[in-house]
Amino acid sequence: GAGRDQVGLGVRGRAANLAGRFRVRPRARAGLAGARVLLVDDVLTTGATLAACRSALEAAGAQVAGGLVLAVTRPPGSPTGWLEAAREPG
User: Fold this and answer.
1) Whole-prediction pTM value?
2) How many CB atoms lie within 10 A of CB 57?
3) Neighbour tally for 18: CB within 10 Å
4) What's the pLDDT band for 79 if we cut at 50, 70, 90?
5) What's the pLDDT at 28?
């Protein structure tokens, strides 16, 4: 079942909203047992989606090697200056 909209929820609220919402399909379980997987998410806000997916995959026997996100947002309720662009990489 779908959880409520995540907008405005903090870390605990997002985690509670997603708890048990991700499941591995029964026919996919055999292929995941012992498999190493990399989680990919489009936008990281609190990490609740990655954590919920990790739990479901590990419960199916997969080994989560890590996670990759394409963009990151300011966590709800955090100060606006939490992330600054560097003038030079490195």
Assistant:
1) 0.65
2) 19
3) 20
4) low
5) 85
* 3-class secondary structure, 5: coil
pLDDT digits (tens, 9 = 90+) for 33-69: 999 999 998 888 777 788 888 888 998 999 999 999 9
The residue whose two tokens read 């909203």 is: 17
User: Which DSSP state fits 77?
Assistant: T
Structure tokens given for 9: 């929820």
CA distance 26 to 1: 16
For the record, the structure tokens of 51 come out as: 């954590």
Q: What's the chain's Rg over C-alpha atoms?
A: 16
Cβ-contact 13, 3 below 8 angstroms: no
**Helix (H) / strand (E) containing 16:** helix 11-18
